[in-house]
């Protein structure tokens, strides 16, 4: 599904990612962990085409997309919920969701004025907010909106960058349930960047840990033991 091979990227003269490789298989939840500032969001931006790779490659469904623009990757089937949500605060909830349709590979659905029911059924509270501005929602409600906006394009890969950051526990539980349901449906793979060990253990199939811009550990749920956690994730 997704294959990142020997990726190098950075900002200006600074190299942040060094020889990073990871894979996400269809229908699986792959979790990327690491302390703050180790390069997790830089890797996500490189996967989405928001940051140009200096070396290495990003392939999706067997196609090299390393030089593709973000919009091209989205229409290929990659959905993205960025850190901080990045909803349009002055637009209504409905208008924010409509923007998500622009990435749908089906042009008829892109032209449709209706929000697909299946895209928001995992967040049933959103239709009650259709006329409210995105900026008037709580942080947790904005996260649900950003999540639903990404799902509207029916992606085959969903990239989630710190989806539980700064939101109330009840919404964290809801997001956990949504990720589990997506995994159980088996139609969409997920790359999840997350710091909460309990959260990733509850939803993940495979795990990668980053340090100083490199992958330093990888394994399955049964391999993510206290030794790995103490060595790479504790301060």
From TrEMBL:
Keyword entries, A-Z? Amino-acid transport, ATP-binding, Nucleotide-binding, Transport
Q: Which SMART domains match?
A: AAA
Give start and end of each ABC transporter domain.
2-235
**Domain of life according to the entry:** Bacteria
Which BP terms in the Gene Ontology apply to this protein?
Answer: L-amino acid transport
Q: Which GO terms describe its molecular function?
A: ATP binding; ATP hydrolysis activity; branched-chain amino acid transmembrane transporter activity
Looking at the UniProt entry, the stretches that span the membrane are none
Q: Which family does it belong to?
A: Belongs to the ABC transporter superfamily.
> What is this protein's record name?
Urea ABC transporter ATP-binding subunit UrtE
Give the gene symbol.
Answer: urtE
């Amino acid at each position: 599904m997704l294959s990142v091979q020997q990726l190098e990227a950075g900002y200006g003269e600074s190299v942040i990612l060094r020889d990073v490789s990871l894979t996400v298989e269809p229908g699986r939840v792959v979790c990327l962990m690491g302390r703050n500032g180790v390069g997790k969001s830089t890797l996500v931006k490189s996967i989405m085409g928001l940051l140009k790779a200096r070396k290495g490659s990003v392939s999706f469904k067997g196609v090299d997309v390393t030089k593709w623009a973000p919009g091209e990757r989205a229409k290929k089937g990659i959905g993205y919920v960025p850190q901080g949500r990045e909803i349009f605060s002055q637009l209504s909830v409905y208008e924010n969701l409509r923007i998500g349709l622009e990435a749908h590979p089906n042009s008829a659905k892109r032209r449709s004025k209706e929000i697909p029911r299946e895209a928001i059924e995992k967040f049933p509270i959103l239709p009650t907010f259709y006329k409210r501005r995105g900026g008037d929602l709580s942080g947790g409600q904005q996260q649900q909106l950003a999540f639903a906006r990404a799902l509207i394009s029916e992606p085959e890969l969903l990239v989630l960058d710190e989806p539980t950051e700064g939101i109330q526990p009840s919404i964290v539980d809801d997001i956990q349930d949504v990720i589990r349901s997506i995994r159980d449906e088996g139609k969409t793979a997920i790359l999840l960047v997350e710091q909460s060990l309990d959260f990733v253990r509850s939803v993940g199939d495979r795990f990668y840990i980053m340090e100083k811009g490199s992958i330093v550990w990888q394994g399955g749920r049964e391999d993510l033991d206290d030794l790995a956690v103490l060595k790479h994730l504790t301060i």
